[in-house]
Amino acid sequence: MATVPDTTAHPEIREVANQAPPLSPYNVYDADLALQEAIARHGGAWGEDRLRDAGAYTGSLEAIEHSRRAESNDPKLVPYDRYGNRIDTVELDPSWHVLMRANVERGTHALPWREPREGAQVVRAGMFGMFNQVNGGVQCPISMTHAVIPALRAAAPELAAEWEPQLTRLDYDEVKIAGMAMTERQGGSDVRANITRAEPNGDGTYAIWGHKWFCSYPPCDFFLVLAQAPEGLSCFLVERGPGMEFQRLKDKLGTKSLPSSEVEFHGISGRLVGEEGRGVNAIITMVNHTRLDCLIGSASSMRFGVAQAVHHARHRSAFGALLSDQPLMRNVLADLAIESEAATASAIRVAAAYDADEPAFRRFATAVMKYWVCKRAAAHAAESLECLGGNGYAEDSLMPQLYRDSPLAGIWEGSGNVAALDVLRAMGKEPEGLPAFLAEVELAAGANDRLDAHVADTKARLASLADVETAQLEARRIVEDLAVALQASLLVRHAPAAVADAFCAGRLGEGRGRVYGTLPAGLDTKAIVDRALAA
Q1: Is residue 4 part of a domain?
Q2: Are residues 521 and 410 in the same domain?
Q3: What is the CA 299 to chain-centroid distance, rounded?
Q4: HEC profile for 200-217?
Q5: Are residues 223 and 268 in the same domain?
Q6: What is the pLDDT of residues 269-305, one digit of tens each?
Q7: Coil, helix or strand for 141?
Q8: Which residue in 117, 137, 243, 360 is deepest, having the highest Cβ count within 10 Å?
Q9: 155 assigned to some structural domain
Q10: Tens digits of per-residue pLDDT, 19-63?
Q11: How many CB atoms lie within 10 A of CB 239?
Q12: Are residues 130 and 183 both part of a single domain?
């Protein structure tokens, strides 16, 4: 007969030692000095109480658990009821609605439109980014609802007057949620290849027939849809209902909580937004605002990764010392931290341009920084995860979710090539954009030799572009040069010297293009890491 083992004989077997305690609960806002400083710098100090409240919620165990549940329980499309009637509903875990409600009640979807004042976009960007650290999927309909309002105001004031009061409510049970449906199987980002058609009904409305390969969040109350009208590609407001049939939900790499779908239109009624044949112009305002949210989202995902990595390294020992005290790990953490701070500074600066009267800088900077910060997010997530070692590879660390979600913003609203080529188009069609961007960069002129040399080299490269093909071939490099110039300028002007010096040394000139953790010697990496997480 087998002997029952005595589990009390060696209690050390079950002892938990040398593991980092949970970071949460903590206040995400209070722990992020770079975010606090950027928001105050750009007129958002009045929103500090709101930001601190959002920070407390987004760093709470409650919010993390709701995100875990929403991610674990996939949305389910229910196209028919039990009797065979078409209903096209989506079943979502209750935690999804809890997180949506927390956003709506704090006004993340509508703050600048409810309270149009200096810093409103900045405060809203801070809240959006903190909520994005909880669950990126939930932020998609929040972003689209926020972005549709200026689009309607610009192209269809009568529709804006009808819908804006409903879109800006702070009651989740009453608020209306907006979405978009633009891309098709055969075209993707080439929306002018759309074959969905809009036939005039004779009463000012149109019957929409066709399909969309990507339609985000089917439970939206209405969608902006691109379709071919008699005068060309046009934009329509289409309310969800009979004639809008969802075919399936996408099985995506990340943002598992978010139902993204394929949809067919079978004669559903739509109302024209703007003029026939001017569909891209009508929807571009919405796209610019959602691109801003891509930028904010990627910056906030970097912030999440840095916070988790630094916290872990401050509590985990190896080879006789805390990880955070070891020179090579401190190099990695500092490198991640300066990338995160540069992303935060640039995201908030661009958000501030949506508050101010800076149309040239706003349009150009959104395209440049959306490309670069979103492109950097995936590598940043991978390195942050690696800082936790095998612990970071386990789902309950939350790092795998960060890693899976990190490429999305680089794809949404135009993947890398689309974004880079958009910058080139802006140089040609909106010639005031590049000078406005460079004027912002040159506010730091003379403060850092590396930055001055980089700006001079960038200007020379732009001036030497001989033809369109060469410009397109080098588009990514051009946009990267512009992006790091703005980030370096912001840090040189506003960040502590340790952060600014490290960024310029690690991102400009010979320091560029290496993996994280390759900052040169002589930098104050300890000061950078100490600043990175104030909790």
Answers
A1: no
A2: yes
A3: 7
A4: ECCCCEEEEEEEEEEEEC
A5: yes
A6: 999 999 999 999 999 999 999 999 999 999 999 999 9
A7: helix
A8: 137
A9: no
A10: 899 999 999 999 999 999 999 999 999 999 999 999 999 999 999
A11: 15
A12: no
Element (H, E) at 246: strand 244-249
pLDDT tens digits along 233-279: 999 999 999 999 999 999 999 999 999 999 999 999 999 999 999 99
- Is-contact 286 224, C-beta < 8 A? yes
Q: How far, rounded to the nearest angstrom, does the alpha carbon of residue 394 sit from its chain's CA centroid? A: 24
Find, among 287, 317, 334, the residue nearest to 525 by Cα.
Answer: 334
Residue-level length of the chain:
535
Helices (H), 263-358: 279-315, 327-355
As a whole number of angstroms, the distance between CA 397 and CA 391 comes to 7
One domain for residues 519 and 373: yes
**Cβ neighbour number for residue 408 with a 10 Å cutoff:** 23
Same domain, 208 and 336: no
Residues 426 and 479 in one domain: yes
Pair (83, 213) in one structural domain: no
CA distance 489 to 344: 13
Name beta bridge partners: 142. Answer: none
Closest to 396 in 3D by CA, of 72, 18, 30, 47: 72
Is 15 within a domain? Answer: no
Task: Give the dihedral sign, CA 444/373/136/248.
Answer: positive
Report helix, strand or coil for 483.
helix
Amino acid at 200: P
CATH number at residue 292: 1.20.140.10
Residue that the structure tokens 């969608």 belong to: 223
Show the tokens assigned to 336: 């991640």
Please provide residue 188's backbone torsions phi and psi, each rounded to the nearest 5 degrees: 60, -130
In a domain, 21, yes or no: no
Closest by CA position to 486, among listed 362, 359, 335: 362
Distance CA 95, CA 27 (A): 21
- Given a contact cutoff of 8 angstroms between Cβ atoms, the answer to whether 511 and 522 are in contact is no
CATH number assigned to the domain comprising residue 238: 2.40.110.20
Q: Is the CB of residue 133 less than 8 Å from the CB of residue 303?
A: yes
pTM of the model: 0.95
Distance of CA 335 to the CA centre of its chain: 21
Tell me, yes or no, whether 265 and 363 share the same domain.
no
Dist CA 36 CA 52 (whole Å) = 10
Tell whether omega for the bond before 25 is within 30 degrees of 0, i.e. cis: yes
